[in-house]
Amino acid sequence: MDITVNILLTIATAATPLLIAAIGELVVERSGVLNLGVEGMMIMGAVGGFGAGYLTGSPWIGLLAAIALGAVFSLLFAVMTLSLATNQVATGLSLTLLGLGLSGMMGTSFVGQPGARLPNLDIPGLTAIPVVGRLLFGQDPIFYISIALTAAVMWFLFKTRTGLTLRSIGDSHTSAHALGIHVIRYRYLAVIFGGACAGLAGGHLSLVYTPQWVENMTAGRGWIALALVVFASWRPWRVLAGAYIFGAVWIGQLHAQAFGIPVPSQLLSSLPYLATIVVLVLISRNKRLTMMNTPASLGQPFVPDR
Amino acid sequence: MMRLELIKRPQRSMLFSALSPFIAFMLTIVAGAILFALLGVNPLKAFEIYFIEPVSQVWQLHELAIKAAPLILIGVGLSVCYRANIWNIGAEGQFILGGIVGSIIPVLFPQFEGPLVLPLMLLFGMVGGAAYAAIPALLKTRFNTNEILTSLMLVYVAQLFLDWLVRGPWRDPKGFNFPQTIQFNDSAILPELMPASGRANWGFVFALVAAVLVWILMSRMLKGFEVRVLGSSPRAGRFAGFGINRMVFFAFMLSGALAGLAGISEVSGAIGQLQPVISPGYGFTAIIVAFLGRLNPLGIVAAGLVLALTYLGGEAVQSALGISDKVARVFQGMLLFFVLGCDTLIHYRIRLIGFATPKLEAAPKLEEAR
Fold it and tell me: What is the mean pLDDT of residues B61-74?
């Protein structure tokens, strides 16, 4: 029983950064913008979170720094693609390349240093309840943020007027513009929200998952988050499900390696990436369904006429 | 709020089309100077070490050619993809597979020697890269998957596969357990061009030949026209009878073959054996090369040399000033950012709309009146 609980807890820890980054990107893509810089914003959040936590000794300040750095970094993308109408695919790629380089440079002195870890929740009485206690009341704070965030985004997108406006911009920016909606302003806010989420996801990696700084520690999670959004057909609750499936794959291969299953460890390590491809194939196979779900103006630059 | 307003030009500006890479380079220099100053280094001194010292002697020019060769080879292939609006960003994986498949002969049949070995290796390398690139192409055409994500995922898979090979079945049994294959025999080593003055090998020649051939393809042949039409207007391309699926395969496999050739050239030229890591991110840097070179094969040759210099400069500042060589990655990323930003000037005029100035001026007057 204890082992099961432990495995479930580690799956939640592995799924949380994927969930947060993907939920952020979902909002960005719902507004019609494709930001391929998730990996870059995430690694910036990871290095910023670790650095601030390490230098101040407070993981909470680290958490705030991770969010702030992700948001500031995404602003770079927003200025380029929204104000200068650059190609979103290429700009997103360059954000990732720049983030990987910048984080490596900023983190040189952090390598091998012990980091600060965010403490797990501990409510006297409740956390001690057998089995469910630790699952419900004993996890790290970012886990609870991730669940709340998913619920909040669901509510925002489908139950509020602003959410409806955001979705309409993603489906047709020209019509939205003609109705007098500030397309660019909405998109700026969406991109910055996505950046803050990616930064938080990166902060989870360096403040909870493995409280240390390792270069390229995101290891493709930003890209998997992008794939999750496609897998989820741009629906928040499906992102939640997808993130936990991937968390399970990630943890499953680690456990398999620890058990010494006679399969090369490299093959097991590549499972999350192969699973991403398989999942993309399964979900994209139905062309009409994909076209129906994809925000219609996704990835297209918009220049308001005067 | 201050904001930018873009005004569409009636036609694309030839002036900015030519100037944009240079403006971007200047902006990168300015941003780099700020970066160096923040790191507490005199920017002028740093630039001398970064951009001038690495190319001040003949043998260093050879090193530049060694670094530029894979960047140009991959960048030229990617330019065809991007022109066709097909997003292959997994060239790093195709490079690795080229290196692996190209190494089958020297690793598994080291007794096989003679003039046939090298051409076969290069051919194998191209086939390996092209076959690996065919996977995302197949998935895109058959199952409609996003090629950006699949080609990128395959990079991680390729890196792990190489790691397994050199630690497992292909490890040199007499190599003291080091994760590497046997040293290639002499007939499997790519010859140096001018051994008297430096290490540069035939890889650089392959890069130049590839650039010229792709330039001819793109500007003088029907296939190149097809690429450009399908890239700028898929609808028009369909009416003209150009098959989009065939184009996806063509672009992916051409760029994969060139990346594979770059991979085996690097392994048999600069390294001489397989190791767990055979590329300092050439496949990703080549994306920058392609854009900096305006997706034009001849521009890519120049851009490849510039980006090769950023690698050498990174190594130089690390040893001379103790700055992390990651600074090279930062320079490369900034360069791509500025190029993309400057490209806006080709299609648009930019007008700054200032702060709400009249109100700000009015406010002090009120104060005075009181």
Answer: 95
Q: Is the dihedral of CA B225, B227, B233, B236 positive or negative?
A: positive
Any idea which residue has 């930019």 for tokens? B350
| pTM of the full structure | 0.90
Write the pLDDT tens digit of every residue in B3-43.
778 888 888 888 888 888 889 989 999 999 998 898 888 88
3-class secondary structure per residue, B270-333:
HHCCCCCCCCCCHHHHHHHHHHHCCCCHHHHHHHHHHHHHHHHHHHHHHHHHCCCCCHHHHHHH
Chain A CA closest to residue B36: A105
The total of structural domains in chain A comes to 1
* CATH assignment of the domain containing A169: 1.10.3470.10
CB contact under 8 A, B332 and A101: yes
SS3 (DSSP) at A246: helix
Tokens of A30: 């719902």
Query: Six-digit token pair at A282?
Result: 């399964």
**Closest chain B residue to A83, measured at CA:** B4
With an 8 Å Cβ cutoff, are A270 and B144 in contact? Answer: no
Structural domain including A277 reads 2-114+127-293
Residue A120 lies in a domain: no
Tokens 């989009």, located at residue: B244
Q: What is the pLDDT of residues B140-160, one digit of tens each?
A: 999 999 999 999 999 999 999
Between chain A and chain B, the number of residue pairs with CB atoms below 8 A apart is 138
Residue B329 is nearest to which of A104, A266, A287, comparing CB atoms?
A104
B225 touches chain A (CB under 8 A): no
What is the enclosing helix (H) or strand (E) of B349?
strand B348-353
Condensed to tens digits (0 to 9), the pLDDT of residues A104-120 reads: 989 888 888 888 888 88
Closest B-chain CA to A215: B326
DSSP assignment string, B74-88 = HHHHHHHHHHTT---
Residue A300 domain flag: no
Locus of tokens 């089995």: A131
B287: which residues sit within 8 A by CB, 6+ positions away? A90, A93, A97, B75, B78, B89, B91, B336
Please tell me the CATH code under which domain B70-322 is placed: 1.10.3470
Q: Which single residue is written with the structure tokens 């709309």?
A: B353
The Cα A246–Cα A248 span in angstroms is: 5
| Chain B, window 17-56: residues with a beta carbon less than 8 angstroms from a chain A beta carbon | none
The span from the CA of B210 to the CA of B203, in Å, is 10
Say which amino acid occupies B284: F
What are the tens digits of pLDDT across the range B90-107?
999 999 999 999 999 999
Please report, as a single letter, which amino acid is at residue B58.
V
The boundaries of every CATH 1.10.3470 domain in chain B are: 70-322
* First CA to last CA distance, chain B: 28
Residue A101 in contact with partner chain B when CB distance is under 8 A: yes
Residue A121 lies in a domain: no
Question: Tokens for B195?
Answer: 């051994």
| A 104-133: CB under 8 A from B | 104-105, 108
Q: Measured between alpha carbons, how far is A115 from B81 in angstroms, rounded to an integer?
A: 43
In a domain, A81, yes or no: yes
Nearest CA-CA partner of A9 in A120, A148, A105: A120
Q: A26 near A236, Cβ under 8 Å?
A: yes
